[in-house]
Design brief:
One of its GO terms (cellular component) is cytosol. This is Crp/Fnr family transcriptional regulator. One of its GO terms (molecular function) is DNA binding. It holds the Pfam family HTH_Crp_2. It comes from Bradyrhizobium japonicum. This protein has about 240 residues and is α+β, with helices and mostly antiparallel strands. The protein has two domains: about 5-135, Jelly Rolls (Sandwich); about 150-235, Winged helix-like DNA-binding domain superfamily/Winged helix DNA-binding domain (Arc Repressor Mutant, subunit A, Orthogonal Bundle), CATH 1.10.10.10. It is about 45% helix and about 25% strand. It contains eight helices and eight strands, in the order H-H-E-E-E-E-E-H-H-H-E-H-H-E-E-H. It has helices spanning about 5-15, 20-30, 110-120, 125-150, 150-170, 185-190, 195-205, 225-230; strands at about 35-40, 45, 55-65, 75-80, 100-110, 175-180, 210-215, 215-220. Strands 1, 2, 3, 4 and 5 form a five-stranded antiparallel β-sheet that branches. The longest helix is centred in the middle third of the chain and has 27 residues, at about 125-150. The radius of gyration is 18 Å and the shape is globular. The relative contact order is 0.15.
Length: about 240
């Protein structure tokens, strides 16, 4: 696999939301990145770990989660190609949550020291990653609103539209459908509902002609009505660098 193939999803995502030049891209391509294939459910970084490299999602999906005292799991976020889900490990040395492969995926591990040096040399790249961190925080805020104030059908619809918007921005959708290997149980853990309730919600949304959720693929059937159900406004994703 060439370096361009490894960094391609990352550069494509950065271009969606920030302005980087050719020198920035060359600097990113000069990073020593080790690619590794991970199997579904394989831990990438665990609570209490002290990573020495950040992981870049090249292909597939990754999730962040935390197990609470009663053994229940809260899914904190889903990550797609181009994301660096443990970027915080550059400066927060101990992991406070788990990062796990969602389906089979290909990751690129970037050692911390060369990445820190690049950020010193290329302030525009540092600014891009800082903006990425702020966008991450905005998404967390929206997830809090989603779990705390929306009903179950709206929560699931909102998550689907968020995934669709982010994947569409990097060219990873096929019309109104996209690949997403999460089980209904994982989506339930991300939206704060039970698996039984999640199954009922999926049936409800399907019967209303809004979406299909089946076999690792989600298909939106009526985007306008799904947006209304979800109370969805994608501004918080900050996909337009001019705004």
């Amino acid at each position: 696999m060439t370096k361009a193939e490894i960094t391609g999803p990352f550069l494509k995502r950065l271009r969606v939301s920030t302005e980087i030049d050719e020198e920035d891209e060359r600097a990113i391509n000069s990073l020593p990145i080790v690619s590794k294939r991970m199997a579904n459910g394989e831990p990438i970084a665990s609570l209490g770990d002290r990573p020495t490299a950040c992981c870049l999602v090249i292909d597939g999906f990754v999730l962040r989660s935390k197990i609470v005292g009663n053994g229940q799991r809260q899914v904190l976020s889903f990550h797609q190609p181009g994301d660096v889900p443990d970027l915080q490990s550059l400066f927060l040395h101990v992991m406070d949550h788990d990062v796990t492969a969602l389906g089979n995926c290909l990751l690129g591990f970037i050692p911390h020291d060369p990445l820190r040096e690049l950020l010193k040399r290329r302030p525009s790249v540092a600014q891009a990653l800082w903006r990425d961190t702020l966008t991450d925080a905005a998404i967390f805020r929206e997830w809090i609103c989603n779990i705390g104030q929306r009903d179950a059908a709206s929560r699931v619809a909102h998550l689907v539209l968020e995934l669709y918007a982010r994947l569409k921005a990097i060219g990873r959708t096929d019309g109104l459908s996209f690949s997403f290997p999460a089980t209904q149980a994982l989506v339930a853990d991300a939206t704060g509902i039970s698996v039984v309730h999640m199954n009922r919600v999926v049936q409800e949304l399907r019967s209303q002609g809004l979406l299909d959720f089946d076999r690792g693929r989600i298909s939106i059937r009526d985007e306008a009505r799904l947006r209304k159900t979800a109370d969805f406004d994608g501004l918080y994703l900050h996909l337009n660098p001019s705004l």
